[in-house]
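Try this one yourself first.
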């Protein structure tokens, strides 16, 4: 019904969404400044005292805050200070990749409480994969605390609205797996998912190299080139969840065929497999990107040329990205960034030199601060972000969920899988 309306009439932003944005601003400030008085919170966030009172009342109604008396006395009145209620509950953020399951448990403020990682190889037996994921969650949760929600980052493509893993390449044949519905059924709490690069973008935005930046572009350079574009604190998806797919910008119009159907995409030229294939083709003896880099810096001209071409392509793609999106910060992560230490500096110099000179001089191009934890931490942020959109629905009756989650032994889920 909503879809029908949205075809002809532009959709407005209702008060709950505006409120959710303000709640997120208040929470971010609290995270950084707690314990803090209401008046200081108003000053720090630029919100009026009345709005702060409203927001704080709302967070208190959900038992998310605790108040402690301040030691300072102002004209006889002792202000109370606000902090997050650590006992209110826990969030789980997961990254499910082709090689591992990484789970991070945090409180509502994003404070990390525990981390657990297990090797994982997806197979056509989706039920087994789900059992492994559930096992990791069960191992990680604290049964004495309510579980508030679960966020998941998985290889794309995904349908983030429906919470479905569509059909990631080399992912054991998973196809149209309604992952969030299956996890919700097992744990009785709201779940959300996104593709791993978009989750990592969220991670860097809230906990990493892009903290406090409203516009951020995250790019991971590894077996593929994933990306996530955050505009105004939200992942910008476009009409078909394709926005910001830097890996599929055209570099060579008649270049190699890409999985997406196009030719000469950035991914076909700078992904780790593409680079290593090029090295083999040109007879460079290197078994890893790090080895190729060592050869290049020690004077192997062919290896050096491969490296230079990669920087040239990356620089061109980033100049395009700057001209399209003008992010405050571009965060680069993944295996290639880790093994090629001069990548960021070289590429940054090219971008700053080419994209409208003085205008682009302030764009920060930096390395991921969270490394391989970015997607799981981002999944925590996704869960919290969604809870804030409708706290009443998400947080009600969570008191019993921790106990349930600890008790539930997965059953009755296999029949819903579409593999
Ligand atoms: Zn492509």
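Now uncover the answer:
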């Amino acid at each position: 019904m909503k879809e029908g309306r949205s075809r002809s009439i532009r959709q407005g932003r209702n008060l709950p969404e505006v409120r959710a944005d303000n709640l997120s601003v208040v929470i971010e400030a609290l995270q950084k400044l707690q314990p803090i008085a209401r008046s200081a919170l108003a000053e720090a966030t630029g919100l009026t005292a009345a709005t702060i009172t409203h927001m704080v009342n709302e967070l208190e109604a959900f038992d998310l805050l605790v108040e402690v008396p301040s030691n300072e006395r102002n004209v006889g009145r002792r202000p109370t200070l606000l902090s997050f209620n650590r006992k209110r509950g826990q969030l789980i953020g997961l990254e499910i990749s082709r090689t591992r399951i990484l789970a991070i448990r945090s409180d509502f403020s994003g404070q990390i409480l525990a981390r657990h990682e297990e090797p994982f190889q997806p197979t056509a037996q989706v039920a087994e994969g789900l059992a492994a994921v559930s096992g990791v969650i069960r191992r990680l949760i604290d049964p004495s605390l309510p579980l508030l929600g679960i966020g998941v980052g998985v290889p794309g493509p995904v349908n983030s609205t429906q919470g479905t893993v569509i059909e990631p390449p080399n992912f054991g044949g998973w196809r149209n797996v309604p992952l969030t519905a299956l996890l919700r059924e097992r744990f009785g709490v709201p779940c959300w998912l996104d593709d791993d690069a978009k989750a990592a973008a969220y991670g860097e935005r809230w906990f990493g190299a892009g903290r406090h930046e409203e516009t951020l572009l995250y790019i991971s350079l590894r077996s593929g080139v994933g990306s996530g574009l955050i505009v105004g604190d939200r992942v910008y998806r476009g009409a078909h969840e394709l926005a910001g797919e830097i890996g599929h910008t055209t570099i060579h119009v008649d270049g190699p065929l890409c999985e997406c159907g196009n030719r000469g995409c950035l991914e076909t030229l700078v992904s780790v497999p593409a680079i290593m294939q090029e090295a083999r083709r040109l007879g460079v003896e290197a078994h890893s990107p790090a080895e190729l880099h060592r050869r290049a810096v020690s004077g192997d001209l062919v290896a050096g040329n491969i490296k230079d071409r990669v920087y040239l392509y990356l620089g061109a793609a980033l100049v395009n990205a700057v001209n399209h999106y003008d992010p405050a910060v571009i965060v680069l992560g993944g295996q290639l960034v880790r093994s090629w230490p001069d990548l960021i500096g070289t590429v940054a110099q090219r971008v700053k030199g080419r994209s409208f000179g003085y205008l682009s001089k302030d764009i920060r191009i930096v390395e991921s601060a969270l490394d391989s934890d970015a997607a799981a931490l981002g999944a925590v942020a996704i869960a919290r972000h969604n809870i804030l959109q409708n706290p009443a629905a998400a947080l009600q009756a969570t008191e019993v969920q921790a106990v349930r989650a600890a008790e539930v032994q997965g059953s009755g889920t296999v029949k819903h899988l579409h593999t």
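Discussion: The pocket of zinc ion is lined by residues 248, 258, 260, 262, 265, 267 (CB under 6 Å). Residues 2-84 form a domain with the Arc Repressor Mutant, subunit A fold (CATH 1.10.10.10).
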